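Lecture notes, part 5. Sequence design as translation. It can be helpful to think of inverse folding as translation between two languages: the language of shapes and the language of residues. The source text, in structure tokens, appears below.
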């Protein structure tokens, strides 16, 4: 088998398994368990905590060599080496990338904190609605559109 044939076969196998920017064509509940996406609070908490730790570590360690690299780049550039300009440019690009990644980690952490709080509020609202409906079942509560029965006065009204 030639390289081209083997390469074409590998590409076809990979294309059959790969899905980019899409979901399976089946409808909801078509997953292996037959259910929708389920996320538990403890899982959100772990992911949020890791994102927070990664944010803090990147903020501290991601810029660790910045001053040294920039100093070396400036020194080499002043001595006439093109490598100095390239090193300074690489340092700036690295700093920008670290900033972007740090912002993304902060966004993930904040979003998961918000999701947990929002889910908790939703759960509390549902619990309150269920409790209110159970209470209403114990009492003779008239329908909303029912008119109250007011007895009519008999005889002359003074």
């Amino acid at each position: 088998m030639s390289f081209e044939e083997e390469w074409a076969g590998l590409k076809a196998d990979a294309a059959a398994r790969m899905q980019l920017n899409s979901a399976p064509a089946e409808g909801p509940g078509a997953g292996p368990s037959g259910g929708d996406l389920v996320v538990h609070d403890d899982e959100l908490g772990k992911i949020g905590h890791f994102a927070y730790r990664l944010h803090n570590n990147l903020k501290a360690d991601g810029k660790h060599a910045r001053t040294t690299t920039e100093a070396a780049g400036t020194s080499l550039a002043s001595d006439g080496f093109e490598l100095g300009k390239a090193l300074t440019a690489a340092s700036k690009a690295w700093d920008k990338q670290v900033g972007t990644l740090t912002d993304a980690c902060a966004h993930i952490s904040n979003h998961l904190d918000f999701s947990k709080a929002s889910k908790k509020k939703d759960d509390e609202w549902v619990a309150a609605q269920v409790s209110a409906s159970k209470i209403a079942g114990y009492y003779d509560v008239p329908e909303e559109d029912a008119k109250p029965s007011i007895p009519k006065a008999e005889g002359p009204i003074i």
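The translated text above is only one of many valid answers, since several sequences can fold into similar shapes. Residues 82-138 form the longest helix (57 residues).
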